[in-house]
Amino acid sequence: MTWAVVFFGAAVLVAFTPGANNLLGLHHGMTQGVWKGLAGLLGRLAAFTVLIAAVAAGLGQLLAASELALTVIKWAGVAYLVWLGGRLLWSTFRTGRTAHVQAPRSTESVPAPRIARKEFVVAITNPKAILIFTAFVPQFIDAAHGSFSARIAILGTVYLLAEFVAGATYIGAGALVKSFRLSRRATRNVDRGTGVVLLGMAGALAASSS
């Protein structure tokens, strides 16, 4: 099982890389609290589980090899990130009000299923996530030891664990900031900053060649 330990170390580095899902996890931890942040993380892990199952079934390689499929997924991801970022920015300007991080009701402002759905869609529409499971993960598979599907299932589980560790860390960091009881202006700036970064990520995804 040494190969699984080596893979876990590599997977942790990949999982901790700043991206849209980790940014959302940080933001949800800051504005919604730990439990709702973890609900979002479960949505992300559900999306990755779907991708792992697709690779194990042999569909991932076909999808990765299809330029049309990756292009459709890429632009769906771009559109969703623009919608998320734009909506978050607009919410800070359309009225003079914003959610108080320190208010007891702030953790109830967004239903947990909606947060989970948001992270699921962001993860499933990211072509780079598909490439992780079709190019990165198979590098650790030795065809001489066990079936491809079984090894993919094991490595997929290890990657989900790494993603959980990374996601929980970002959520915890956000919750730590939340505990400082930010002012209304600071909270509004957090929302605006998150919206701007999401729009920037949408632009980077749109400009990417994948």
From TrEMBL:
<feature type="transmembrane region" description="Helical">
    <location>
        <begin position="45"/>
        <end position="66"/>
    </location>
</feature>
<keyword id="KW-0472">Membrane</keyword>
<feature type="transmembrane region" description="Helical">
    <location>
        <begin position="120"/>
        <end position="141"/>
    </location>
</feature>
<dbReference type="GO" id="GO:0005886">
    <property type="term" value="C:plasma membrane"/>
</dbReference>
<feature type="transmembrane region" description="Helical">
    <location>
        <begin position="6"/>
        <end position="24"/>
    </location>
</feature>
<keyword id="KW-0812">Transmembrane</keyword>
<feature type="transmembrane region" description="Helical">
    <location>
        <begin position="72"/>
        <end position="90"/>
    </location>
</feature>
<feature type="transmembrane region" description="Helical">
    <location>
        <begin position="153"/>
        <end position="177"/>
    </location>
</feature>
<keyword id="KW-1133">Transmembrane helix</keyword>
<keyword id="KW-1003">Cell membrane</keyword>
<dbReference type="GO" id="GO:0015171">
    <property type="term" value="F:amino acid transmembrane transporter activity"/>
</dbReference>
<protein>
    <submittedName>
        <fullName>Lysine exporter protein</fullName>
    </submittedName>
</protein>
<dbReference type="InterPro" id="IPR001123">
    <property type="entry name" value="LeuE-type"/>
</dbReference>
<dbReference type="Pfam" id="PF01810">
    <property type="entry name" value="LysE"/>
</dbReference>
